[in-house]
């Protein structure tokens, strides 16, 4: 029975480098394989884009989450958030373990910024309860973030049993550090980097991270270590750094 879990979260910037100078989705797949996480939370994942497919000869034929999962992560879920003429993008979760159920909650604060919460229940062999994973990408503005965090709180209270293990990870766009007021103080989660380093991690921009935008919150785990993957080669793939954490089930 696996009692250890290695997870990662990454805003992949739709498969392009900083300022969209280069398509990076092939290098991204190799780097994610090297990271070797059990479950990966991804934001800004392109499900379809006819313009990019026509422009780039080696653009993946299928959705990015399927291309990235390939033969390494046997299960995946994709939550479509932003829809436009050429296609759509959203959040995705890649998992080595079976995804038993999933749903995508629209938490868009206004029509100019489409956001969602992708919630998966994952069956870990030998665990008495499913692992609940929520991939988050919140809006840029304080008022919208506040409403989205309230929606996240209500969603957890209604659908996640208190004794079930829970991981919430993603791009919170939370340089004001508001999220912990709800998730730590009211829902009794732990932020991996607050626990191991005293404060949430700097993740943006990936070349020299200054802003603390991305998070990993957990409940029902002991966090062994947490790491920011920045600099090369990661800084050449996306504008965000990657976060990872190794944890033991309590």
From TrEMBL:
Gene3D superfamilies the UniProt entry points to: Endonuclease/exonuclease/phosphatase
One Pfam entry name: Exo_endo_phos
Highest taxon listed in the record's lineage: Bacteria
Domain Endonuclease/exonuclease/phosphatase, chain residue ranges per copy: 8-240
GO cellular component, one term: membrane
SUPFAM superfamilies assigned: DNase I-like (SSF56219)
One GO-annotated biological process of the protein: GPI anchor biosynthetic process
GO-annotated molecular function: catalytic activity
Protein name, UniProt field: Endonuclease/exonuclease/phosphatase domain-containing protein
Origin species: Nitrosospira lacus
């Amino acid at each position: 029975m696996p009692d250890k879990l290695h997870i990662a979260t990454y805003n992949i910037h739709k498969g392009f480098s900083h300022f969209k100078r280069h398509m990076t989705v092939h290098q991204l797949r190799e780097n994610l394989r090297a990271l070797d996480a059990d479950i990966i939370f991804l934001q800004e994942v392109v499900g379809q884009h006819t313009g990019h497919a026509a422009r780039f000869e080696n653009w993946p034929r299928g959705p990015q989450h399927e291309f990235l999962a390939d033969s390494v992560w046997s299960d995946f879920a994709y939550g479509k958030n932003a829809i436009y003429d050429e296609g759509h993008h959203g959040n995705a979760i890649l998992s080595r373990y079976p995804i038993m159920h999933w749903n995508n909650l629209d938490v868009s604060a206004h029509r100019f910024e489409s956001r969602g919460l992708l919630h998966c229940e994952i069956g870990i062999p030998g665990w008495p309860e499913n692992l609940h994973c929520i991939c988050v990408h919140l809006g840029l503005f304080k008022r919208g973030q506040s409403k989205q965090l309230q929606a996240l709180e209500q969603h957890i209270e209604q659908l996640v049993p208190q004794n079930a293990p829970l991981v919430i990870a993603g791009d919170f766009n939370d340089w004001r550090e508001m999220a912990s007021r709800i998730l730590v103080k009211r829902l009794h989660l732990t932020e991996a980097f607050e626990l191991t380093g005293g404060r949430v991690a700097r993740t943006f921009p990936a070349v020299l991270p200054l802003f603390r935008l991305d998070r990993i919150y957990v409940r029902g785990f002991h966090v062994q270590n947490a790491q920011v993957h920045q600099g090369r080669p990661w800084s050449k793939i996306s504008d965000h750094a990657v976060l990872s954490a190794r944890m033991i089930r309590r």
